[in-house]
Known about the structure:
heterodimer; A: alpha+beta; 2 helices; globular; B: Rossmann fold; 36% helix
Amino acid sequence: xxxxxxxxxxxxxxxxxxKEFDSEGSSVNELISNLEKQFPGFKAQILAEDNQxxxxxxxxxxxxxxxxxxxxxxxxxxxxxxxxxxxxAGGN
Amino acid sequence: xSEVNTSAQENNTSFTPDxxxxxxxxxxMEQVGxxxxxxxxxxxxxxxxxxxxxxxxxxxxxxxxxxxIGIVDFDVVDLSNLQRQIxxxxxxxxxPKIMSAKESLLSYNPHIDVVTFxxxxxSDNAFDxxxxxxxxxxxxxNFATRYLVCDASYLLEKTVIDGSVLLFDGQATVYKPxxxxxxxxxxxxxxxGLVPSCAExxxxxxxxxxxxxxxxxxxxxxxxxxxxxxxxxxVLIDSLSMEFRIMxxxxxxxxxxxxxxxxIKELIDYDQFCGTPPVTNFDAQS
Lengths: 92, 286
């Protein structure tokens, strides 16, 4: 089970400046737990105190926003790409 | 010059020979033609911010003959702007951005009207500034203004052509009332300091041109009523790999602005809304 993880540039510092790498998991929750093992501290930056994803950050499985599927329980399968995408405000 | 201005302001149905020649590459296309070029001339577009994104958007809209271009910006041109903000030149340093923007746009195309607002866009003036334009292009550089543009435009039933940049990444989409909004995509802003600005983190200058060109293209399509717009789709641009990806955006039924039970029915204090104390900090990982 190989999941491709993609990080927006502004949060690549959470993953040792890696933009794209492989990880594992059968759900987004499980993937985040695995990413926590790979990159200690990752989970605390992605999830708020209520254990939900921060509202300024969206997680996509392929091109679908997990908020409209099953949130952190959204299932993922071999070959899926999971993208972490925070809001950007730069325009200047 | 005076004849040209009169022509633009009176909104007549004919084009001057200069305009016919100027817009010939548009008008020769079946999807545009004289009728489409007339739509462009009759259109009004407000650009929020005369900076990295506002510069290419305003330039292309002016070149393409959009009849009325509004620009709201309260800043003055700084030397550090000139790495990317093509509306302004070295001679403009220290000058209000709206002034150099207007000069640049009218030198590109004297057949258009440029309306400037030298003030920050805030809750007190947003409705007055936005109400007279058909389309709003968001080139703001902070979250407070982005949520303000979202709310005011939705409440006035305006289409927003949205774009943002940071580092080597860019995003763009289109929000139309009833089809989702910025709050559907990002319900809350990050705590201050969590997601840096371009001034704090940097931006590849040409990226603003790339995203701004996407916004300008979407604006032309919206006015011309052609093609498939970016409503419901978020374009992600990674310039380092030069990959363009598209994510789906859905209208959130729980959205406080455009959802089934809206709670936002007037403009709020956006500085306060965006000033929530940080609950975590990406910088802690750096």
